[in-house]
Design goal:
The protein is an alpha+beta fold and 364 residues long. 23% of the residues lie in helices and 27% in strands. The chain has 2 domains: 5-164, D-amino Acid Aminotransferase, Chain A, domain 1, CATH 3.30.470.10; 178-350, Alpha-Beta Barrel (D-amino Acid Aminotransferase, Chain A, domain 2), CATH 3.20.10.10. It contains 8 helices and 17 strands. The strands form 2 sheets. Strands 1, 2, 3, 4, 5, 6, 7, 8 and 17 form a 9-stranded mixed beta sheet that branches. Strand 2 and strand 3 (42-50) form a beta hairpin. The chain is globular. Bound molecules: 2-OXO-4-methylpentanoic acid (COI). Residues 72, 242, 308-310 line the site of 2-OXO-4-methylpentanoic acid (COI). Residues 72, 242, 308-310 line the site of 2-OXO-4-methylpentanoic acid.
Length: 364
C-alpha cells in the first residue's frame, strides 16, 4: 500500500494531566488523529491532523447496520524515556480479521503499523508515565449512504489516541486492583457463527444494558455465558464483554478456549505464554459455569482475574448473582498468581523486566 501520510498536527496543546489515576478511562483524547478514506477500491488521503468532527451522510452504513470495527492497544513510556508498542502486529492482524468478517477492506499490516507509529510519534509528549499509557483506538466505519443491506463501497479508517490511566476507577494501575463481577444468566453477548470472536462495535452495543445493570450493583464487569438454552450450570463461561477471564485452581490457570464466540485477547495470549514460561500449568478449555460455581463454593478456585489491553490484569473479588448471592475466590485479592502475572506483563511493557518474548516495538 503506497499512500503518503500528510502530517499537519496541532503540536501546542498538551492534555497530559498531573494525576492520571483521576482521569476516567476513555475520556481524554489527544489533540491529533490519523484518518484515511477508502473509495474506488483503494485507500487514499491519509492525514495526521487535529481531531475533528466527522461529516457523515445520515444514510451511512455504519449508522444503520453497524458496519464498524475497532481495536484497542497502548503505547508505554518506559523509565529510559523510550516509547514502545506491545505486540501491535496482533492487533493489526485481528483488525484485518474483523474487516474480513464485516466485509470491509483490509489495510496492509506495514502501512497500518506505520500509521500508528506516526501518530504516536506526533503525540509523544502526551504519553504519560506509569501507571498511565497512551491508549490507541484504530476504528473503521462504512460511510456510503445506502439503506440496502449490503457492504458499503466507501470507508473511513481513523486512529484516535487517549491519555489513559486504569480502566476501573478506584484502582491505581500500580497493582492488579479488585473488581466485583455480575454474572449474567439471562443475556449473552454472542452466539455460534456470530461475530463474538471479532471486534465489531455491535458486540459491545449488545452488552450495554447488562453493563448498566452491573454498574448499578457496583460491579465493574459482566461475566457472560454461552448462548445455549440449557441449565445455566452447563453453559460455558465466555468472556466479560470488554475483557477475558481467568481462574486459578490448584495453582493452575484456566481460561475459556477460543471457539469463535469470544475475543482472542492479546493480553490473554501474552499471559498464557508468560504463565507457561514460569512453569504454571495452563488449561485453555471449555469451562461450564457449574465448574466455577462449585470451585468458588468449595474454595478450590483461589483466584480469578480479568485481562485485556484496557484492564491489564485486574483481580476479581466476587461474583454477584441476581438472586443476591456473592461468591468469592478463596485467596485475598490480588492473589499471588494474579500479582505474579500482573508484575510480569507490566514489567515487560514498562521496561522493568527484559523483553524475553520480543514483544516490544520501539517508536521513539
Ligand atoms: C481494550 O481492552 O482495549 C478494549 O478494547 C476493551 C474495551 C472495553 C475498552
Amino acid at each position: 500500500m503506497d499512500v503518503e501520510i500528510i502530517i499537519r498536527p496541532d503540536r501546542d496543546t498538551l492534555v497530559r494531566p498531573e494525576r492520571i489515576e483521576h482521569v476516567e478511562f476513555g475520556t481524554l483524547f489527544t489533540p491529533n488523529m490519523f484518518h484515511m478514506k477508502y473509495s474506488g477500491g483503494n485507500w487514499h488521503d491519509a492525514y495526521i491532523e487535529p481531531v475533528k468532527h466527522l461529516q457523515l451522510h445520515p444514510g451511512a452504513t455504519v449508522l444503520h447496520y453497524a458496519q464498524t470495527i475497532f481495536e484497542g492497544m497502548k503505547a508505554y513510556r518506559q523509565k529510559s524515556g523510550d516509547i514502545v508498542l506491545f505486540r501491535p502486529e496482533m492487533n493489526i492482524a485481528r483488525m484485518n480479521m474483523s474487516a474480513r468478517r464485516m466485509q470491509m477492506p483490509e489495510i496492509s499490516p506495514d502501512f497500518f503499523l506505520k500509521a500508528i507509529k506516526a501518530l504516536v510519534e506526533t503525540e509523544a509528549n502526551q504519553v504519560p508515565e506509569l501507571p498511565g499509557t497512551l491508549y490507541i483506538r484504530p476504528t473503521m466505519i462504512g460511510t456510503a449512504p445506502q439503506v440496502k443491506v449490503a457492504a458499503s463501497k466507501e470507508y473511513l479508517f481513523y486512529i484516535l489516541t487517549l491519555v489513559s490511566g486504569p480502566y476501573f476507577l478506584g484502582t491505581s494501575g500500580r497493582d492488579p486492583g479488585a473488581v466485583s463481577v455480575y454474572v449474567a444468566l439471562d443475556k449473552s453477548r454472542s452466539c455460534y457463527g456470530g461475530t463474538g470472536g471479532i471486534k465489531a462495535g455491535a458486540n459491545y452495543a449488545g452488552t450495554l444494558e447488562t453493563t448498566s445493570k452491573a454498574y448499578a450493583m457496583k460491579c465493574g464487569q459482566v461475566l457472560f455465558l454461552e448462548a445455549r438454552d440449557v441449565p445455566y450450570r452447563e453453559r460455558r463461561v465466555e468472556e466479560m464483554g470488554g475483557m477475558n477471564v481467568c481462574f486459578i485452581k490448584n495453582g493452575a490457570l484456566y481460561t475459556p478456549r477460543l471457539h469463535g464466540t469470544i475475543l482472542p485477547g492479546v493480553t490473554r495470549d501474552s499471559l498464557v505464554k508468560i504463565a507457561k514460561a514460569r512453569g504454571i500449568e495452563v488449561h485453555e478449555e471449555d469451562i461450564p459455569f457449574g465448574w466455577v460455581e462449585d470451585g468458588l463454593a468449595d474454595g478450590s478456585i483461589t483466584e480469578a482475574f480479568a485481562c485485556g489491553t484496557a484492564a491489564v490484569v485486574t483481580g476479581i473479588k466476587s461474583f454477584h448473582f441476581d438472586d443476591g448471592r456473592d461468591l468469592a475466590p478463596s485467596s485475598a485479592v490480588p492473589g499471588p498468581i494474579t500479582q505474579q502475572l500482573f508484575d510480569a506483563i507490566v514489567g515487560i511493557q514498562f521496561g522493568d523486566a527484559p523483553d524475553e518474548f520480543g514483544w516490544l516495538h520501539k517508536v521513539l
